[in-house]
Structure formats: C-alpha cells, structure tokens
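#help-structures
NK: newbie question, is this the right format to request a structure? protein is DUF3307 domain-containing protein
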Amino acid sequence: MLSTPHVLVGIFLIDRFPNICGLVLALLSHFLLDFCIPHWNPHLYTEFKKQGKISKTSLKIIILDIITAIGATLYFMSLKLPNLSLALLYGLASFMAILPDFVEIPYYFFRSKSVLLKKYVYFEHKYQAGAGVFWGGLIQILIGLAALKSLLTF
C-alpha cells in the first residue's frame, strides 16, 4: 500500500488513542492494511529481482507519495500546535505507520545483503493483498478519504 493511506490511518489512530497504545496501533495497522486489504502499489520487489533496480516510473510514484504523506503529517501536526508534545506524537504515529516500509530502504536503495532484511522484504512481498491499479488504487483512495473525514469531523 502507498505511504499516504498508511500515514492517514496512523494519524487517525493516534487521534483516537493519543498515547503509546496509539503508536502500537499505528504500527500494527500497517500490516493489517498490507496483508488484509487488496491494494495496488509499484511492484518494487519484482522490478528489483528482474532489472536489479526500481524503475523510474515507480520511483516517481514513490516520491510523489512520500511528499503527500509528509504534507499530511505536517498539516495534522500543525493542528495540534502549540501543544508541541501532541504534535510530535502525531509525527511519530505517522512514522510508525510506515516504519515497516521504511525498513526496506537499505534493501532497495543501498543493495543491502542482510539475510534478515532479505527475508523480511520477501515476507512483505509474499503476503501483500494485491489488486489491480484501478481497484487497488480506488480502495486506497477510499481508505485515505475515510481517515480524513474522521479526522476532520470528529
């Protein structure tokens, strides 16, 4: 799943549970979304195995997605100011929600040879609940919109 829906769900969870429980839920939500909700994302694992690198198209999608996720994080953090502790908690929940994907960066971008990391990347790839671009993209948009609606109307 793209980072933006993960981040929005993580922020939603910390909004409802502004404590360590919310942070744990933000982290666990990543696996729940990836493994249980059909979605689309660039096929980094397949590209990397076949071509030895990530395609330029996938890289552009990743960059745009990360910019959007950071923007959403900063926006919701700013809503909690001047309470700096709460704003930072929102930022941390956002990070926790994408941490499982963040861990894969050394594998894809720095060609890490770590056996443990290779096993983790394979595990993530194997158990993703994949869908085509249209339905998988639509599902992610709906998840993001539901989280946004809940955040902005609660």
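mod (FA): yep, format's fine, and the tokens are attached above. The two ends are 25 Å apart (CA to CA).
NK: thank you!
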